[in-house]
């Protein structure tokens, strides 16, 4: 883990945190930052409660190391000419987007993710009916039986798949996402609890170790950080005014709550030529703003800056 604290002449502070996925996932990272802030706040203001401790061994009980095969790790290759852009969806725009999926009732994430995948298929230059395979990250903590506490440390994630194309309408895409999730529910339970299947887990690890890193087909990787209390960390100076993520993962997409908890910020990473098409897609621009200025609220002051 690496932490960098940046202090600015204006008195503002930016804290950057980087952690290896071998140690933890976004749930682990957010819990760490929130607990760190709560402990710091406690020693500045004694009336501030201390957080409950993280659970260090709950993940080990689900994934006992001695029972699983170990495969050679493949090197990670970033995307040297990648561009990361921020697409911001206001709450009213998300509600309007969700309405276009009727009669299906999508979640915020499902509606926005479906639109992103549809527009990405066009940006990647796929033919109208060519499929775009998308993986969606799933938090295992609440899906194994019995579930483990939310403060369980570790990299407790897996994925489910669905395919999108340019010709799919939003109701079709949302339906595919829902079917992908429902279809994977029983498999998700095999990762732990009374349904744990070590042969199944070992096969998943083997497939991942053998999968080529230079894929010959289009793939999007979707990860939702929504509902993870990202704006709750208070070190004693108030809660964050803005949070973002940085990645050069090819065709990676991170979905984050806006500060109001209702809108959404989507960080998309693509090769330059593909991003140039995506940020001009009119279907996307109907609902999202590209790289808008970040509004910073501090007491009675309102200021903006460009990121």
Automatic annotation (TrEMBL):
Gene3D superfamilies reported for this sequence: Chloramphenicol acetyltransferase-like domain
The organism's place on the tree of life at top rank: Eukaryota
An example molecular function term from Gene Ontology annotations: acyltransferase activity
Keyword Acyltransferase recorded: yes
UniProt cross-references to Pfam families, sorted A to Z: Transferase
Keyword Acyltransferase: yes
Annotated keywords: Acyltransferase, Transferase
InterPro entries xrefs: CAT-like_dom_sf (IPR023213)
Cross-referenced PANTHER family: F21J9.9, HXXXD-TYPE ACYL-TRANSFERASE FAMILY PROTEIN
Protein family according to the UniProt entry: Belongs to the plant acyltransferase family.
Name the UniProt record assigns to this protein: BAHD acyltransferase
Organism listed in the record: Arachis hypogaea (Peanut)
């Amino acid at each position: 883990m690496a932490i960098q604290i940046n202090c600015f002449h204006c008195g503002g502070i930016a804290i950057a945190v980087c952690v290896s996925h071998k140690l933890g996932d976004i749930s682990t990272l957010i819990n760490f930052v929130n607990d760190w802030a709560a402990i710091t706040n406690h020693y500045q203001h004694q009336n501030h409660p201390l957080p409950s401790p993280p659970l260090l061994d709950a993940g080990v009980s689900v994934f006992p190391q001695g029972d699983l095969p170990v495969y050679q790790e493949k090197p990670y290759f970033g995307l040297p000419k990648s561009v990361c852009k921020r697409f911001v969806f206001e709450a009213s725009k998300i509600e309007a987007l969700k309405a276009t999926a009727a009669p299906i009732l999508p979640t915020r994430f499902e509606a926005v993710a479906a639109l992103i995948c549809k527009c990405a298929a066009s940006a990647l230059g796929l033919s109208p009916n060519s499929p775009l395979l998308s993986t969606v990250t799933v938090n295992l903590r609440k899906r194994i039986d019995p579930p483990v506490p939310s403060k369980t440390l570790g990299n407790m994630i897996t994925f489910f798949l669905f395919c999108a194309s340019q010709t799919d309408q939003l109701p079709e895409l949302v339906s595919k996402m829902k079917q992908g999730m429902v279809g994977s529910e029983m498999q998700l339970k095999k990762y732990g609890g009374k349904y744990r299947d070590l042969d199944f887990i070992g096969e998943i690890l083997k497939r991942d170790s053998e999968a080529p890193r230079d894929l010959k087909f289009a793939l999007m990787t979707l990860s939702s950080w929504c509902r993870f209390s990202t704006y709750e960390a208070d070190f004693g100076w108030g809660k964050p005014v803005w949070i973002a993520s940085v990645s050069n993962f090819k065709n990676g997409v991170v979905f984050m709550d806006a500060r109001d908890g209702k809108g959404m910020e989507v960080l998309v990473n693509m090769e330059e030529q593909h991003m140039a098409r995506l940020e001009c897609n009119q279907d996307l621009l109907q609902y999202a703003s590209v790289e808008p200025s970040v509004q910073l609220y501090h007491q009675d002051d309102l200021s903006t800056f460009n990121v």
